[in-house]
Design brief:
With 191 residues, the protein is mainly beta. It has two domains: 3-114, no CATH class; 118-190. The chain is 8% helix and 51% strand. It has one helix and 17 strands. Strands 1-2-3-4-5-6-7-8-9 form a nine-stranded antiparallel sheet. Strands 10-11-12-13-14-15-16-17 form an eight-stranded antiparallel sheet, covered by helices on one side. The longest helix is centred in the N-terminal third of the chain and has 16 residues, at 3-18. 22% of the residues are buried. Mean pLDDT is 82; it is low at 1-32. This is MliC family protein.
Length: 191
């Protein structure tokens, strides 16, 4: 998956399920985790919690509903006005979330939760440059900001050791406290 798709996924997922106006023409974009599928009116997502339990969601933004499937039970929840993120509920279930972090309650008891594993770090080199980094270990992606500049989305690679993230222009490699960010094979940050 390239960085443009990942960026669109996160933004699209949040916008699509937060939107309450069913008359708008919306872009349907799958998220960046397991088993996403998009049809004309549905966004289908599969989440896995830390215990290996699987929750399937089918968002119908035209009808402002989500169909949930967990442990052989299926239910339809209606969209509610959320201050931030998304919120769906019926008499039994309540689904809340923001981005790919979600909680599902049944009769006010939390029965499923999915939270991406995130790590943040900031490093400054001898030249005074600052590199802010946000690593999403669940999706194996990173967002980096050089000197507070634009967000750079990177995808995790398989290094021999240390870390390695890249996109079409940028590459972040490092081991321990030593990091190097390159743009088109030219070093733009090194500590």
């Amino acid at each position: 998956m390239n960085t443009h798709i990942i960026k669109a996924v996160i933004l699209g997922f949040t916008i699509l399920i937060s939107c309450q106006d069913s008359t708008k023409n919306q872009t349907k974009t799958p998220s960046n985790h397991t088993n996403s599928k998009v049809t004309d009116t549905l966004i289908m997502e599969t989440f896995t919690d830390k215990n290996g339990q699987t929750l399937e969601l089918s968002f119908n933004n035209n009808k402002n509903i989500v169909t949930i499937s967990l442990n052989g039970e299926t239910a339809i929840l209606q969209a509610e006005n959320a201050a931030s993120g998304f919120w769906y509920k019926n008499e039994q279930y309540e689904l809340r979330g923001k981005g790919t972090n979600i909680d599902l309650k049944k009769h006010d008891q939390l029965i499923f939760t999915h939270v991406d594993s995130m790590v943040t770090a900031t490093i400054t080199n001898k030249q005074g440059q600052t590199l802010n980094m946000v690593f999403n270990n669940t999706s194996n992606t990173a967002k980096v900001y050089l000197d507070g500049g634009d967000e750079i989305q990177l995808n995790g690679q398989t290094p021999g050791s240390g870390i390695w993230y890249k996109n079409e222009e940028y590459e972040l490699r490092g081991k321990g406290e030593h990091l190097e960010l390159t743009k088109n094979d030219s070093v733009v940050f090194k500590n």
